[in-house]
Amino acid sequence: MKKINTYDQTGILPVINIPSAEIAVKVAEALRRGGVNSIEVTLRSPDSLESIKNIKTAFPDMTVGAGTVLSTETVERALASGADFIVSPGYDDEVVDYCVSRGIQIVPGCVSASEIQKAVKRGLMVLKFFPAELNGGIEAIKLLSGPFPGVKFIPTGGINFDNLGKYLANKKILACGGSYMATGDQIKNGDFDGITSACKKAVDISLGFELAHVGINCSGEGEATDNAQAISDIFRMQPRYMNSAVFAGKAVEAVKKGGLGTHGHIGFYTNSISRAMAYFEANNIPLNQDSFKYNKNGEITCVYLQDEIGGFALHAVER
Predict the structure, then answer these.
(1) Pick the catalytic residue: 53, 56, 128, 172?
(2) Which of the following is catalytic: 22, 26, 29, 40?
(3) Where in the chain is the domain with CATH 3.10.180.10?
(4) What is the CA radius of gyration of the chain?
(5) Domain 6-207 belongs to what topology?
(6) What is the pLDDT of residues 20-66, one digit of tens each?
(7) Is 128 labeled as catalytic in the residue annotation?
(8) 242-248: which pairs have CB atoms within 8 A and are 24 or more residues apart?
(9) Residue 3 among the catalytic residues
């Protein structure tokens, strides 16, 4: 079965009703300028299939899904138009079985434990959660993830810039679908610059970069203790003594035996280390391959960049 990774790499899946095939490429261009290289074109207009064809012709590397697929006949028509994957609003046995038997990636809508269990039995581990907010939102997904730990969700319906970060901070969320980055009014009015700006904002929220702490390289335990204590005294922080470092509050780490970086390091939180790494790769920012840190499940949780800035090594760590 073909794996679709683009929306996984950004955490953003535009779910768009394109009213006219004539503007399909312009919509796709606007998304790509904003750092989003995937789209689910809902089959809700007479031009939807032609829109998919136009987008794939213009941008073969763009991941294009066909949404609102309700029958096996529509599956074939969508694939013939160039769709990379199929999305259905609910769980339809006939459509799911048809796709699974032919190795077609399908993301069915599942909001109950019974629907999720059926999907898992068919080997589906990426599921749409629609309409998300009306079915309990992120709290419902957290509860459903208990008995189905391997399932990842794409919530759609009611997602906006106010709650996007809350969803994407959860590891069970593969991506958030919706039209929050390309609204119907923006498309109707040809506001493609607005779509690009909204996509950039969505990607920023998805990555969630935020200063975590600053590390100071020290020559030994004594210097580390003195530095951390001095900072703690000045800024009324509580020193914390660790095996390899002494912290002044949570913001400053005095490393006992030094570390990466000429003077130290600066750490940045991210909502997802995998999305951060995809972002670094897409922007030609080299990583220090020897710096990766892993959790007990073998997942990367921290990575340093290859180059220093101002004598400081930079790293991203999962929040």
Answers:
(1) 128
(2) 40
(3) 210-318
(4) 23
(5) TIM Barrel (3.20.20)
(6) 999 999 999 999 999 999 999 999 999 999 999 999 999 999 999 99
(7) yes
(8) 245/215, 246/221, 247/213
(9) no
